[in-house]
Structure prediction request, 865 residues.
Amino acid sequence: MKSVKRKRIVQFIKTSSPWLIYALLLIVPLLFLAVQSLVDMSSAEESVFQNWISVRSMNLLFDSILLACLVSVFAMLISLLFGLLVYSRWSGFIREMKWILLFFAVIPPYVQASVWLDVFSLFGWPTQGLLISFWVQLLSLLPLSLLMVIYGYQQVQTDVIEAGRLLSSDQLVLRKIILPAVKPFVITSGGVLFVFSLLDYTIPTIFQYPVYSLEILEEFAATGQVLYPFLKSIILMLIIVPVLVGSAYWFINMNAKPLQSNLSAGVKLKFSLLVKFGLSLLCLLLILVFLIPIFDLFFRSGSLIEVPTALQDNMRILIHSVHMAFWSSFAMIVLAYWLLSTIRSLNLFAWLIILLPLCVPQALSGLSLSVFWNQSFFHQVYGSNLMLILVNIIRFGPIAVLILYLFKSRISENLVEAGKVYQANRFRRFRQLDLPLHLPGIITAFLLLFILSLGEVGASIAVIPPGGETLSIRIFNYLHYGAGEVVSGISLSVFALLLLGYFLHLLYRKTKGTRSTQGSSSIKTTES
Amino acid sequence: MTLKICLRTFFLLILFCLVACTSRNDALIVYVSVDQNYAEPVLKKFEQQTGIRVLAVYDLEASKTTGLVNRILAEKKNPQAAVFWSGEFVQTIALKQAQQLEPYLSPNAAEIPPQFKDPAGYWTGFAGRARVFIVNTEILEPHQYPGSLSDMLNGPVPTKEIGIALPLFGTTLTQAAALYTIWGAEKTDLFFKQIEESDIQILNGNSSVRDYVSQGKLSFGLTDTDDACSAIEKGKPVRMIIPDQDSLGTLVIPNTVALIKGGPNPELGKKFIDYLLHPTTLNDLIASGWCHVPLRKADESPSCMETDTILAFKVNLDSIYTNYVRHRKALKQQFLK
Prediction:
């Protein structure tokens, strides 16, 4: 009896530990801030709701929603069309462009901001306001949407398409089979981008486009109290929570078919001349959009000779930023994997808890960490580089859980159970079975989290440790001062590293002899 | 095999700690709310000359000095920084009032006028920004240039072509507090009420005012000397006008440096303060393009300024702080509704 009870306790501890750690790192700081706000509210002298909902705030909210809608709609459209280009296997160049575009997702959004500021200025276009804010935010978030939608296209199986093509034209197959299958991915990507855009204040700030999420930071800056930014955040979260949680829950449980482990390489479809022309134009536009910043940077900095100097000047900060992004992603993957190993599926309430930190405005996330970890018993953590890692975890940890869950859902339970029967040693089972099965999800999640962590500014502002400035924070700050040369130097070194990374990646693929679009897994499921 | 995995994991954890848990025991930590592109070279030079490692946290345009000061206040029980180098004085006095500062009378502060330093040595000013008009010379003729703050409401230029930063933090709020001190509450309340009710563009910050005027979206605006200078040096069609030089003068907001109470390595902090207050440092800053008015005799003067002498408000800075605290909530309610 006692041993059974002990086993239950041990089992309970094993199951609840990752959840407790997740809560401590992501939920507890937010709750702490909420409690502190309630305490401040009870002792506030004046009516705190006086300026809570004001005409100015509502105008800002409207402007923010407008920007977010534009970004998400255009991103969905571009991703849908470009994904179709890739899926319909027009040419090897298009498939290669997919990798180039995804590679350039690593460019921090503030590097994009600096080059497009130049480009817009060169053409005499407005360098402030909605247009440039929309454009730069779209470019910085587009790779995320592209990733999701291209993955969605790869879920459409070739044999289903071929069967359809026997009976109908390619146009009809596109309309009746392919697009409906991709729809969940497109709409979810739209929802995610809407939320990210609504939460971001850093890019609109650079271009003097006032947004609601900046108010939250300004409230704290002006008052020094957490109550006011907390109240301001509630309104934003009332919009974000249903959009994000609804998108995720709908995608996972309602409209999406079980994810396939065999990713489709695409089908060579025949399109009408008009469609071909439209898709070619899109392709050209995307090429220009990604070539222009490169030319601008090299043109602005003078020559290729500047690259080594730029790298040398910024090497310390580059290494520091990469370190922070790497360890943040690693920690998030480990936590998410551990969390998901304790459960089979998640209900709506669990999803709400997991995704809640994603719905919190950046400034509030940073504030919550600053307030929570600035307690005397945490003083070794506060002020250290760990704060930057904690910031990335609170901002993007839910994404790690989401991605790993999606990949986990396509792994056959029978394989896992067989592994438990035939390989009793847990470490060996993990190494020989679990890790290979989860590896595609882990790699995808790691890359995405790395990119997001590298570009994080909004929440990090509140907790930057002394001497811990990251690349993105530095560029963000210098852009406000108009120090173009410094920004050019940093941007150039980032591009140089990216190009180097891309060429290494090409070399690796050539050596391994694998094609980039063949995402076929070696493990086939036996389930229908 | 299990041992290998454990060793690899242990190695990773060590690497993680090396990255995340950097030692700051021997470093000087400075919180800086001066533009990073000017402050950073000063800190680097100090590092090179003294061999003392300097770790800095800079403020950001989004949150300004107030954000950094709130951070210092939040860290009251566990101060992280030794020195606070601020681009203005009001927040420094706030820290003094909150007993967050340690007095230190630097020998290099002797030549600085008493108006610009704390008598007990809690803070010292060494160069200032003046509140000025930035005027677009392609839109306005010389006879239309504003000469006084009252020209913002009663001048020849339509109010919708005039800009001012949100007077809730930063130097704009400080100027508001100075006006309450100089003009009195009634006149200043009326002034801001008229501004709010007019078409005057209320922008996010002084740099926004600078940009809007430079781009011709506004005819003129109220900003600081450093913002106006940066536009002039970039060849924008703008000019700097110092208001009220034939009457009360304008507000000169000194940079201040102070020792934070309970901060780590205070002796290093004192060395840095001495370094910062040295005339050579001021000359270096101005030579690098820092558009601040020296409060002591200096070899350099900002190249963008047309005059070496500025008539500043003759007012006690502590009085400005008192009005700052008294009136900022009302201004917030007025401008954030």
